[in-house]
Amino acid sequence: CLATLIIMLVGDTYTLINYVSFINYLCYGVTIMGLIVLRWKKPKIFRPIKVNLLIPITYLAFWAFLLIFSLYSEPIVCGVGLIIILTGVPVFFLGVYWRNKPKCVNRLIESMTCWGQKLCFVVYPQCGSAEEE
């Protein structure tokens, strides 16, 4: 969010939309790749919706073409989009990967989570959800 705010203050909105659209399509493609990998590695797990693999493979072919074309035609925009994505790496290491955090860091993360939930009207899932089963 901080990188996006800085870019919004420095650049124009059209450029920010280009950065975000590249990030969105990159994430869509990675998600579809994950679908194919899970269908291959774990074919027996329950799926509420199951489609023919030809559809995601076709989507990935078009996705790869568009992504390569974007990288070729606008490398700066794509590079800045990748930098925006990479700003999440420190957040991952601080929040998820680092297991033995001091109590003050845990309290800070919990208070930020609570604040974010109140701001976005989000309720933490209750015990006994479908994910735990």
Report the sheet-strand fraction: under 5%
| Biggest β-sheet description | none
Helix content: over 70%
Distance N to C terminus: 34 Å
Number of strands: 0
Order of helices and strands: HHHHHH
Mean pLDDT across the residues is 82
DSSP helix count?
6
Concise synopsis of the structure shown:
The model is unreliable at 128-133 (pLDDT under 50).
Q: What do these coordinates show?
A:
- It is a single chain.
- With 133 residues, the chain is mainly α.
- It has one domain (1-120).
- 74% of the residues lie in helices and 0% in strands.
- The protein has six helices and no strands.
- It has helices at residues 2-10, 13-41, 54-73, 75-86, 88-97, 103-120.
- Helix 2 packs antiparallel against helix 3 (54-73), helix 2 (13-41) crosses helix 4 (75-86) and helix 3 (54-73) crosses helix 4 (75-86).
- The longest helix is centred in the first third of the chain and has 29 residues, at 13-41.
- It is extended.
- 3% of the residues are buried.
- The model is unreliable at 128-133 (pLDDT under 50).
